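Lecture notes, part 5. Sequence design as translation. It can be helpful to think of inverse folding as translation between two languages: the language of shapes and the language of residues. The source text, in structure tokens, appears below.
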């Protein structure tokens, strides 16, 4: 039976939902497919995977994961936010052999998928609540900078190599090498023309004053313009020149994607678990795939739930298991790790998608493309895909993110920038750990005891939850779970009168929870918060108890 949420009748789920919402979900699925097609190819190519396997990931995310996911509106597929980790795993595990590195990276992806299923079974869907929001935003901004640092070179037809002749993967090296790439602009000027034209479309298309045109994904417009422009400029792939013994004498130049196989050639087991022999490196990437992938997926589910016009709440644990299953299947077949992807999921909501079938149809159209039209993919210039990814990277590392954190407080911008610096200098795990460590140091400097960092003191009486001591990102999960035991249409009181500090992550979480309760006709009352003072003028900054 249908229920009501925010005065709207909920769409049905399952087969009944397919019948009820066929036209809206089919249309949204097709429009998301148009966006996902070039992005999936670009993400795979940027990750040093064979580009076609980005489409395999999107197909699995649509056709399989949509049917078992705990989120109705999110689109599953390869994520730009994992490019850094995937490319790093290929380079480190393969030791310069990209084909070997790809197959060994697949083993890490499959194991990470198994861990994500376990995360869901252990009900760790609230995992994202442990990480301070300033550190999470810093991680995402760092990922954006890393994407841009690599793709700017590809945009201009360059692919910098180290002194050992291997492609550069370190972001600081890539950023330093930009001066040489810019100085050699005319070396591959035709490629640069295609790339810069594509970049102008990526940034200029959303600014058009005509709403009807803005509904067409800029990524699709890039392909419509870049493919014929590439042909007009006479750009084509130049193969390596080898001697009789097979050694490369002259390195070729490949500005276009190159697919030598169709769907039925590539649907085979590609995974290798020989990476276990490099146990330290293998475990590092398993952890990063499982942790960062889960974190991004869960954050996207949260964001899309807030966009859902019907205010439905996803089952985060079930969705995490579904993503894990998708990663196991995708990894076995050769695909990238998948998450609930925010850009495609947002497009799904904006295009009128109502149920999980929109995600299914997006995967179905990917399947049709792989069967009938993959031959046309050989015409796609890499510089056009680089332009799309630079657009994604810019959104992640947009200057307004820095401004937003600075407005919330100097402590938040400090954690944000620390996370970015350590991520660029080392890797994502060290970066997020550095951000969390600084957050702990700041809390301890404010008088928070070490014992209170992870332990919240809480009592519950009827609908009244009293928290004592401090409410901070690392000890609030238990309190939040207690709040969520009450239905959204009830009146719940969170009493913080005996707290002395409530941090930014908790303040923002409570802000969203209050909206959730209000949307269902209920109320989450924060008792005693008027006795606190924000340390800056921003309403989401750290709140400290006023001296009495």
């Amino acid at each position: 039976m249908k229920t009501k949420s925010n005065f709207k009748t909920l769409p049905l789920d399952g087969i009944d939902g397919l019948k009820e919402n066929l036209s809206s979900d089919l249309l949204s699925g097709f429009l998301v497919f148009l966006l996902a097609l070039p992005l999936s190819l670009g993400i795979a190519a940027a990750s040093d995977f064979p580009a076609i396997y980005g489409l395999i990931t999107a197909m699995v995310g649509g056709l399989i994961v949509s049917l078992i996911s705990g989120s109705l509106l999110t689109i599953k597929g390869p994520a730009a936010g994992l490019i850094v980790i995937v490319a790093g795993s290929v380079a480190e595990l393969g030791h310069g052999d990209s084909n070997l590195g790809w197959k060994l990276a697949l083993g890490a992806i499959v194991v990470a998928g198994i861990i994500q299923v376990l995360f869901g079974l252990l009900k760790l869907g609230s995992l994202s609540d442990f990480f301070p929001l300033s550190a999470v935003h810093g991680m995402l901004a760092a990922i954006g900078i890393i994407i841009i640092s690599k793709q700017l070179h590809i945009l201009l037809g360059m692919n910098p190599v180290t002194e050992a002749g291997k492609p550069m993967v370190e972001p600081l090296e890539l950023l330093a090498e930009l001066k040489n790439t810019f100085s050699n602009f005319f070396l591959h000027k035709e490629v640069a023309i295609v790339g810069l034209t594509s970049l102008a479309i990526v940034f200029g298309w959303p600014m058009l004053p005509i709403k009807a045109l803005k509904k067409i994904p800029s990524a699709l417009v890039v392909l419509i313009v870049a493919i014929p422009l590439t042909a007009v400029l006479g750009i084509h792939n130049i193969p390596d020149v080898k001697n009789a013994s097979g050694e490369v004498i002259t390195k070729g130049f490949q500005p276009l994607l190159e697919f030598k196989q169709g769907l039925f050639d590539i649907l085979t087991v590609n995974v290798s678990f020989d990476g276990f022999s490099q146990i330290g490196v293998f475990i590092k990437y398993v952890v990063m795939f499982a942790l960062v992938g889960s974190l991004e997926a869960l954050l996207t589910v949260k964001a899309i739930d807030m966009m859902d016009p019907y205010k439905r709440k996803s089952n985060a644990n079930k969705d995490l298991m579904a993503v894990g299953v998708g990663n196991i299947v995708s990894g076995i077949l050769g695909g990238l790790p998948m998450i609930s992807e925010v850009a495609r999921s947002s497009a799904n909501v904006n295009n009128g998608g109502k149920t999980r079938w929109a995600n299914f149809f997006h995967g179905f159209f990917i399947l049709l493309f792989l069967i009938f039209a993959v031959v046309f993919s050989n015409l796609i210039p890499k510089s056009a895909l680089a332009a799309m990814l630079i657009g994604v990277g810019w959104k992640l590392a947009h200057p307004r993110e820095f401004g937003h954190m600075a407005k919330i407080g100097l402590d938040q911008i400090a954690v944000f920038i620390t996370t970015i610096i350590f991520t660029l200098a080392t890797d994502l795990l060290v970066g997020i750990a550095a951000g969390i460590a600084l957050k702990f140091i700041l809390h301890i400097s404010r008088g928070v005891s070490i014992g209170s960092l992870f332990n919240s003191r809480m009592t519950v009486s009827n609908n009244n939850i009293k928290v004592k001591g401090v409410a901070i990102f690392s000890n609030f999960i238990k309190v939040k779970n207690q709040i969520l035991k009450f239905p959204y249409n009830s009146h719940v009181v969170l009493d913080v009168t005996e707290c002395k500090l409530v941090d930014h992550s908790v303040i923002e979480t409570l802000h969203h929870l209050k909206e959730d309760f209000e949307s269902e006709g209920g109320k989450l009352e924060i008792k005693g918060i008027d006795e606190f003072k924000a340390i800056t003028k921003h309403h989401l900054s750290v709140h400290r108890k006023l001296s009495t």
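The translated text above is only one of many valid answers, since several sequences can fold into similar shapes. The longest strand covers residues 491-502.
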